[in-house]
Amino acid sequence: MSDLEQFRQETRAWLEENCPESMRTPVKGFDDLYNGGRNPEIDHPDQKVWCDRMAARGWTVPHWPKEYGGGGLDKEQVKVLRQEMARINARSPLDSFGISMLGPALLHFGSQEQKLEHLPKIARGEIRWCQGYSEPNAGSDLASLATKAEDKGDHYLINGQKIWTSYADKSDWIFCLVRTDNSGSKHEGISFVLFDMASPGVTTRPIKLISGSSPFCETFFDNVKAYKSNLIGEEGKGWAIAKYLLTHEREMISGFGAAPKKSVGQMAVEAIGSDSSGRLANGILRQVIAQYQLDTLAFAATMARVGDEAKAGQGLGAASSIFKYYGTELNKRRNELNLAALGEQALGWDGPEYRDGVVSRDWLRSKGNSIEGGTSEVQLNIISKRVLGLPDA
Amino acid sequence: MALVLTEEQVMLKESAAGFLAEKATVAHLRKLRDSDNAQGFDSDVWAEMAAMGWAGIAIPEEFGGLGYGYTGLGLVLEQAGRNLSASPLQSTVLIAATLISELGNSEQKGRLLPAIAAGEQLITLALQERGHHAPQQTATSARRDGDDFVISGSKLMVLDAASANQFIVIARTGGDVGQQQGLSALLVDAATAGLSVERREMVDSRNVGALVLDKVRVPAANLLGAEGDAWGGLSRTLDIANIGLAAELLGLSVEAFERTVTYLKERKQFGKVIGSFQGLQHRAAELFAELELARSIVLQALHAIDDGEQELALLASAAKAKLCEVAQRASNEAIQMHGGIGMTDEYEIGFFIKRARVAQHTFGDYNYHLDRFALLSGF
Ligand SMILES: Cc1cc2nc3c(=O)[nH]c(=O)nc-3n(C[C@H](O)[C@H](O)[C@H](O)COP(=O)(O)OP(=O)(O)OC[C@H]3O[C@@H](n4cnc5c(N)ncnc54)[C@H](O)[C@@H]3O)c2cc1C
């Protein structure tokens, strides 16, 4: 038996034994994912059990080195682990910005001390992180951010405002872009700092989304202390880190473009019916769903191809923009098709008849996918300029 | 009829625009939503609308209406779309009054139409039974029993169900599920035994309801039109309903678009207003062209109703399908071009996409009407 095959068998046996039954059911939507943190929102006690068991093996972040709380697995092993989890419909034990965004940036840019301090807590789900990038006047033009960090010796004093900070009110720490220098171009003088959201001077005001929940906030900093030990990379050179992190955020968001478990076409047949040869009874909807499903297939193949092509250590670069653009547009298409396929059932907002409006709320939430993490337009600009080499107007 | 508005129609449009922009705006809709108003509209504002004659806008003068025709009603619905004004204009004025005109005998018309025109009666159509608009698939049954009909079945998406005084229930008195023939229209008083009305909260915060009819007994005199023969009148009513909804979607789309263009001129990024980026300019310009086409098809369809044209079905499906397409695009672009703020409940643009999808769905969505348009076009 090959080593990989042995790994598969051991993994299968371990998962069978350790994954609670309740964690082998699909998540009920965005808010049903387990995010960890000092005061975790626990909908089911097994969420924490499952996370803790996986974390003990380093499998909340299987590809991270063991010394930082990871599993130390190679790419092939990670793939096997994912396949075996999928085989029993195991939920992801922990979803967090720490894993998908900050972790990769720390692994790349953090000092050994910083990695040892922060990564294991991310891996174990102890600290929940939020992303302090956008400001009222710095959205697509992120580099024009103005939140000020004043040098006070061993720490910075931070003043300013962030906006659209997802889960700021529920997070323990923030990775934050601040301006330490105003004298150069806008891309210079940006620094990447970490600080505790429980620090004096931090306030958050939740903002309600059109889907009815309040995942993001306005975040205000009034003389907040951020210790220099938590400055990542060099002072004033945070833009490169910010961009690196964005490629990982975009990769994460583009995952929404994956095909759903139950295909839209199947769902439509159940809702609308089919003719004797099995064709969906509505020919026009059938064509649009077919186009969508074909594109998800080609999208998945592209993700796989680019993944296989990427040499170890290479950044995602412009590929992340292509994926971010296409994946989020696919997810929006899928959600519109849910409405078209399910009709009245999809338009409910509340009440048991509509499972509390899960379909319409997910549909509304999906509209944000092509805005968060850099808008579709920003991705297209990046592709036009960096990949196609087209000049500015 | 030339595709321009008469002076009288322009005045009507302007007075509707002024009134609704003051009394029935998105802010009012938000208030209705947040106070969990079961009725879904403001009765006082509706009383004012009725006092201006809007409840009888398309009802002939002989039945107490204004006799402005459907073009007049369409202009008001367009303004209601702009402001997302919630009222029984669709359920009672556009749909029930039309169905009564189409199918009712002279006694029924003489009794019901003036009551609607005076704003005294709210009547609504109970048709849809499953996830999609499929009138031929009606399975609710009405069985003749002496001088009565006994109705059993269930209905969904019944507009203004919670405040309706009467329902016009489409039920099968003959034929098989899937057939046009055998459908009947029956008036059912809201207080009739065996009828239960359940409020359903939809994404657009309007009031729709689900009905359960458990051996509901109504006198045979409540039949509108001949037994088993409602299809012709129902079908024409649905065409008119869809044209009216297209007019509402036109107003909604234009408003969402105009708000977006205003934002493109205000919001600055990279040291310029975002409206200076050609990627956005071209999309806005394309949408503008689409909206011009949308306006024309809606006006043509409204005129066709008033001219009594035979081609109504084709035009109705054309107008509804086109407006579903344009409203979807306009409401999606509105959010996307606003960026993060477009995703917030505090900002109003999200209300437009929510109402758009429900109005699109009501009495047949894009896929339904595009397919019907093709069929009626002979392919
Ligand atoms: C659900 C959600 C969650 C979010 N979470 C976070 C978070 O956790 N942390 C955080 O920091 N931020 C977060 N954001 C903010 C997000 O990153 C910004 O909203 C986004 O970068 C766009 O910025 P903006 O909202 O200011 O829009 P703007 O930049 O004002 O854009 C408005 C419109 O103009 C377009 N545009 C702008 N510039 C150009 C150009 N040069 N060419 C063509 N078109 C252009 C945009 O694409 C958009 O359509 C979140 C946003 C959403 C919707």
> Largest beta sheet of chain A: what is the strand line-up?
1-4-5-8
| Main sheet overview of chain A | 4 strands, mixed
Largest sheet of chain B: 4 strands, mixed
Unreliable sequence segments of chain A: none
The CATH H-level homologous superfamily of the largest domain in chain B:
Butyryl-CoA Dehydrogenase, subunit A, domain 3
Overall mean confidence score, pLDDT of chain A:
94
First-residue to last-residue Cα separation of chain A: 60 Å
* CATH-defined architecture of the largest domain in chain A: Up-down Bundle
Mean pLDDT of chain B: 97
Number of helices of chain A: 11
CATH class of the largest domain in chain A: Mainly Alpha
| Total individual domains of chain B | 3
Beta strand count of chain B:
10
Q: Summarize the helix and strand pattern of chain B as letters.
A: HHHHHHEEEEEEEEHEEHHHH
Order of helices and strands of chain A: HHHHHEEEEEEEEHHHHHH
CATH topology of the largest domain in chain B: Butyryl-CoA Dehydrogenase, subunit A, domain 3
CATH topology of the largest domain in chain A: Butyryl-CoA Dehydrogenase, subunit A, domain 3
CATH hierarchy: architecture of the largest domain in chain B: Up-down Bundle
The helical percent of chain B reads: 40-55%
The share of residues in helices of chain A is 40-55%
Q: How would you classify the quaternary structure?
A: heterodimer
Task: Explain what this protein looks like in three dimensions.
The complex is a heterodimer of chains A (393) and B (379). With 393 residues, chain A is α+β, with helices and mostly antiparallel strands. Chain A is 42% helix and 14% strand. The mean pLDDT of chain A is 94. The longest helix of chain B has 36 residues. Chain B is α+β, with helices and mostly antiparallel strands. In chain B, 51% of the residues lie in helices and 16% in strands. In chain B, the strands form 3 sheets. In chain B, strands 1-4-5-8 form a 4-stranded mixed sheet, with helices on one face. Chain B contains 11 helices and 10 strands. The two termini of chain B are 29 Å apart. The chains are: A alpha+beta (393), B alpha+beta (379). Chains A and B meet through helix 8, helix 9 and helix 11 of A and strand 9, helix 8, helix 9, helix 10 and helix 11 of B. The complex binds flavin-adenine dinucleotide. Flavin-adenine dinucleotide (FAD) sits at the interface of chains A and B.
